[in-house]
From TrEMBL:
Residues 1-20 are annotated as: Disordered. It is an enzyme of class 7 (translocase). The lineage of its organism: Bacteria, Bacillati, Actinomycetota, Actinomycetes, Micrococcales. Pfam families: ABC_tran (PF00005), TOBE_2 (PF08402). Its EC number is 7.6.2.9. This is ABC-type quaternary amine transporter. One of its GO terms (molecular function) is ATP binding. Keywords: ATP-binding, Cell membrane, Ion transport, Iron, Iron transport, Membrane, Nucleotide-binding, Transport. It comes from Lapillicoccus jejuensis. Residues 27-264 form the ABC transporter domain.
Amino acid sequence: MTTAPEVSPVAPPTPATAWPAAPGAAVEVRGLTHAYGARPVLDGLDLTVRAGEVTALLGPSGCGKTTLLRVVAGFLRPDAGTVTLDGAELTRGRRVVPTAGRGIGYVPQEGALFPHVDVAGNLAFGLPRSGWRGRARGHRDRVAELLELVGLAPELASRHPHELSGGQQQRVALARALAPRPRVVLLDEPFSSLDTDSRRETSAATIAALRAAGTTAVLVTHDPDEAMALADRVAVLHAGKVAQEGPPQEVYHRPVDAVVARALGEANVLAGRLVRPEEVSFTRDPQGDAVVVSTTFHGHDHVCVVRLDDGTSVTARATGTDLPAAGERVRLDVGAP
Ligand SMILES: Nc1ncnc2c1ncn2[C@@H]1O[C@H](COP(=O)(O)OP(=O)(O)OP(=O)(O)O)[C@@H](O)[C@H]1O
């Protein structure tokens, strides 16, 4: 059962309804610990989210990504640790700044929109409530601006959520989260329910909108390709902590351990050295030291599993049409792709 956090408000850092564009903000998470009953999920987790950047949180199902987002958003009170936004503490001991006072937007996987209200109504929900006179006009302008920001046509303002595609719905959910000009937006696997084409298009539009708004973002995903393609930095969660954080290239090519290496994609660990499948090449050779176990076609390339004579299994990526078949002998070379 999920229980509501006991919220003992401390003064929010700034009003959540600030109309002028807020600068990007950095979130600092220190020593965050949370257990559901006796089961620890976060265990002294540290994470820095840099201002104006997109940080992807990557990790397998159940590793605590959503739990971390819920703590940062203020939906869940942690057992221990601190969260600060722009240097202002959001948690202080067992007291927390309420969600509404944090200046943080949240985009869940799906189903975030109010079904009986049109798009304009959904967006208006995220807008500041101050200034009654001229508000309708101001809201109309802002709704148009928000739709443009997320790459949606202005005519969609009068549609209801069920008259939109899944990708369009997620863009409206993002626009609504951006409406009050939050300093940070947290996105919890926002593209997971979309099919491949819509996913690519929606994720690109989402990142473009975040960058245009200059909003700091945390994007939860368990897809390493998505994390590396979309984010400025990637943080890999493992065993309740951030195992490694850094730019995608760095985490991919210089993982701190095999767990991080595998979180970012296929990896071979040979005699203590990490080798990515694209760094392994092989040529047909009856005198070679390995035999092909399987070859799987992936459109852009093939993934080949090859077994060395000492029993070590190695995964390689290969392009071309004349590839050795299962059972053929090959010679392996390891080097830069
Ligand atoms: N309210 C809750 N009560 C008890 N256990 C929970 C609760 N919420 C989450 N958990 C458990 O805590 C662990 C972490 O869950 P969390 O949702 O944070 O993981 P996640 O990394 O976001 O997973 P996914 O990628 O599948 O969404 C899981 O084992 C989950 O079953």
